[in-house]
Design brief:
The chain has helices at about 65-75, 80-85, 120-135, 145-150, 160-185, 235-250, 265-280, 295-310, 310-325, 325-340, 355-370, 370-380, 390-415, 420-435, 445-470, 480-490, 495-515, 520-525, 550-560, 565-570, 585-590, 595-605, 630, 635-650, and strands spanning about 35-40, 40-45, 55-60, 60, 190-195, 205-215, 220-230, 255-260, 290. With about 675 residues, the protein is of the alpha+beta class.
């Protein structure tokens, strides 16, 4: 009996399953294979292109053709691949077609698209994967990864640690081109935030992030540099890192302010001011140049409170721990809570001592449930650490002074772009409350709030002027809120402080009027250079402002009684209504033609960032630490990995995609 061939069968056929009539071979695979007898009763299918043979029949058993189809249609046959590479292959979105001189026939098989293999593209995508997910570079040499890749795509040539390090650097350089182009198109000045990370090796890593505002008055941020400083506590470390950043991005003349995540010594600030005096024009004699991170300030204030109440916190923590570490004890606690009908929906949580918000939440919840704790020993004889009434009273006082700090810090998480305007309100209210508390007759309250007030006072002293100026640039408040709040804070001395803000805002405005030359290309709204001549409606050139800057100042100084400046007109107008979701930046965008110079000043002031840390680190009590693995890498590799990860989240750069290869020697 002749053996019949059936398509798409992976199992061998037996004679009992064969039809009695021989069927003609219809599968397309026979256009690429011939059947050869290799021994009595044994036949194999031989590929016409690569001459490789495959099992076909042995005795009365016949193999199917699925394995033959995979050979010719899945890009396995070297001969087929050579023919495809020479021919015009259809796009990746179209099904692959097998090259053959024989007439086309219909056959059943998956219409998988043919995607040409590209070693360089695969390496580029692997580098992006490593960067985006913080995978270690040496994963490319780990046996499990090597085996996975070899089975996934045998044609991929595995790379070494040095090679993938070079690929990551190349990705960083490619992305950097796009970021540079993006920054070049930004109008106005820019602001820096500096976040200092520590490491187990006592090395410092300074994260420098640039903050910009585009032509549409939308804020943007980009991580610009990660600079390793071997002696981060030195007087010159900060100046060196900022000099590196400004030179690397050609931003020497555009810096408006710097916000730090920690207090700096006077020597550090003097070194920085001296460096910037040569590279960057000082705005308002540098009074707006340096600011402190509000997140770190609030964390320091909260930490002072927790340290002052350490014994109280520990007693409450022990009680919460007793309940939360046993399911049966927690059930007893909940049963007792229902019996007592405590009117609180708070849930007990055990805190993380390194994140002060969790400690605050634990104390607030425990204080609201203190009645349950006081009665818990009646239903649970093993509970013997119930805090006394005095402890609960002091815990409630501690919560009362922690809660405003907690609510202010939470704004950094719930607000997309928190501004100095918001924290002007928060800080002066906290400062006023603490100023009253330090005079309390209760020694616990006085001792608790004294160190808190010292830190708030320092922040207020360092950042009061820039915060007040931001408030003035808000058309809902202008000088009115400054006058009101200063009266609450400074009492009889308030007029002197109000005058300082008024003089400062007018002096700053005159600087923007008198120094348009370095700002003209920066602030050009159409993004073009300011060298082309302007024409009137008839095509005749208009007189430019070049050479008349001093005249503008003269007009401002001599015509004050007859012609109000933009700033005075703005201040004299009625306040805008305080409607919900008022958009300050949107208001200035709408009124930039009415206030062409003042709007530029407002753009820069409202851009100043108040915090240096991401939302997930707002409540941390310690600085962030670089992990041990990254510390083992070269500093330029660390910078490339961290910066490129930040940039990749914003999409591909709008620059040439030409392949850049960087190789490192072992």
């Amino acid at each position: 009996m002749e053996l019949a061939v059936y398509e798409d069968e992976d199992e061998f056929r037996t004679p009992e399953t064969q039809p009695t009539k021989r069927r003609k071979k219809k599968s397309v695979v026979w256009e690429h294979f011939t059947i050869e007898t290799v021994s009595p009763g044994v036949r194999r299918a031989c590929c016409k292109q690569c001459k490789q043979s495959f099992a076909y029949s042995q005795g009365t058993k016949v193999a199917g053709t699925s394995h033959l189809k995979r050979h010719i249609a899945k890009g396995i046959c070297p001969g087929i691949l050579r023919i495809r590479d020479k021919s015009q292959v259809a796009p990746a979105s179209a099904p692959a077609k097998i090259v053959s001189d024989a007439p086309k026939r219909r056959y059943r098989m998956s219409a998988a698209p043919y995607v040409p293999f590209d070693q360089d593209h695969c390496r580029h995508e692997m580098a992006k994967m490593i960067i985006m997910h913080d995978y270690p570079l040496d994963m490319v040499e780990q046996p499990g990864f090597v085996s996975f890749v070899q089975n996934l795509q045998p044609r991929f040539e595995l790379v070494s640690f040095s090679a993938v390090q070079g690929d990551c650097i190349a990705t960083y350089l490619s992305e950097k081109q796009g970021v540079m182009k993006f920054i070049e198109g930004m109008p106005g000045r820019f602001c820096l935030t500096v976040d200092v990370w520590t490491s187990s090796q006592n090395l410092g890593y300074l994260f420098l992030t640039g903050h910009f505002m585009d032509h549409d008055w939308k804020m943007h941020r980009r991580l610009l540099n990660v600079v390793m400083e071997p002696f981060p506590e030195s007087d010159t470390a900060l100046s060196h890192a900022i000099a590196t950043c400004l030179g690397d991005w050609n931003l020497e003349s555009k810096l408006f302010s710097i916000t730090f995540n920690q207090a700096s010594t006077q020597a550090v600030l003097e070194n920085l001011r001296a460096f910037l005096a040569n590279k960057n024009p000082a705005i308002l004699n540098g009074q707006l140049l340096i600011g402190n991170c509000i997140a770190r300030t609030l964390s320091a204030v909260a930490n002072d409170a927790l340290v002052a109440g350490l014994d109280i916190v520990q007693k409450v923590r022990n009680s919460v721990k007793y309940v939360k570490t046993s399911e049966s004890r927690e059930e007893k606690f909940d049963d007792l809570r229902q019996q007592l009908q405590v009117p609180s929906d708070k849930v007990l949580v055990l805190d993380d001592p390194h994140r002060w918000n969790t400690t605050c939440e634990m104390l607030i919840a425990a204080c609201e449930l203190k009645e349950v704790f006081s009665c818990l020993d009646t239903s649970d004889p093993d509970y013997k650490e119930s805090p006394s009434l005095d402890v609960w009273k002091q815990a409630e006082i501690l919560c009362a002074y922690l809660k405003p700090i907690y609510e202010a810090a939470s704004i950094l998480i719930t607000t997309v772009s928190p501004t100095a305007i918001t924290f002007f309100h928060e800080v002066w209210k906290i400062q006023a409350d603490l100023a009253r508390a330090v005079s309390s007759e209760d020694p616990f309250v006085a001792d608790l709030t004294k160190p808190m007030l010292e830190k708030i006072d320092k922040y207020w002293k360092d950042c009061c002027l820039v915060s007040a100026m931001a408030v003035v640039m808000d058309p809902r408040f202008k000088m009115k809120l400054v006058e009101f709040s200063f009266t609450k804070i400074f009492g009889e001395e308030a007029p002197n402080y109000v005058k300082t803000v008024e003089d400062g805002i007018h002096e700053l405005f005159l600087e923007y009027v008198s120094l348009p030359l370095p700002l003209t290309p920066t602030y050009a709204e159409d993004g073009t250079a300011g060298n082309s001549a302007k024409m009137d409606d008839s095509g005749r050139p208009l007189l430019t402002d070049h050479g008349l800057n001093d005249f503008d100042v003269y007009i401002m100084e001599t015509s004050g009684q007859h012609m109000k400046s933009e700033l005075d007109q703005y201040l004299d107008e009625n306040l805008s209504p305080r409607v919900p979701d008022f958009d300050v930046l949107g208001w200035w965008k709408t009124n930039k033609m009415k206030y062409p110079t003042l709007s530029k000043m407002a753009r820069d002031i409202l851009l100043i960032p108040v915090s240096t840390v991401p939302s997930e680190s707002v409540f941390d009590l310690t600085n962030r630490e670089m992990d041990r693995y990254k510390c083992s890498l070269r500093p330029e590799t660390v910078e490339a990995l961290v910066c490129a990860k930040d940039w990749l989240q914003y999409g591909p750069p709008q620059v040439s995609n030409a392949l850049v290869k960087v190789e490192f020697s072992s």
